[in-house]
Amino acid sequence: MNLFVETLGQGPDVVMLHGWGLHGGVFSRVAEQLAARFCVHLVDLPGHGASPALARFDADAVADIVAAHFPLPAHVVGWSLGGLIAQHWAARHPDRVKSLALIATSPRFVRDDSWPHAQARQSIEAVAQSLDGAFEQTLERFLALQMMGAPAARDTLKALRGELFAHGRPQGLLPALELLLEADARELADRIRCPAALFYGVRDAITPIGAGRWLADTLGDAVLYEFPQASHAPFLSHEPDFVRALAEHLETQA
User: Fold this and answer.
1) Active site residues
2) Cβ pair 115, 201 in contact under 8 A
3) What is the pLDDT of residue 19?
């Protein structure tokens, strides 16, 4: 399967995987700041941006597709949905992942008795049900939820809106949303051996800080960075601090 990938810079390879409903361009500003020291690859996941859709968005299959595009060992950065794929990639292809940077992500995106660190199933189901009839409005409401509680949320949301369809209208969002409803990658944590940096907003309602703290406690080699005033996208709302911490992580593991 062909994936749309933008590449800039030179140096050790860094692969960045975006969240649901967006595309690799959401990381453009971060990538530009890393490009002097790293070769940064911005991937459009299947069904997002300019990459073709899959009938079924299976986490293992998508991880294998992305890994096939980057056969040499790389640093992997994953946000939200992209972070879930990054966990599968690191567990399935440990020889190809030098380090992980996980941003506002989780092994499980739905709350239940065994996992309080997520939103209610109904919240994700409501997004799925409204995709057909109100596509653009649904994505914009979802973006607004990601910024809730963060300082300068309006400015950050405006920047995200401008990026929404920059790579074209996405064609496969529902299968990826169905994955978020069903995924449970907690058992993968024991198979992830590479160093990991974890970046989480304390005000995040989509992947609450408890998910990051669970990963920090469960992964064998992890450092947690908490952003007290951030919500679901600390790399946008707190860009300078995020880039500084990510660059330090990457340089330490390069």
Assistant:
1) 80, 204, 232
2) no
3) 93
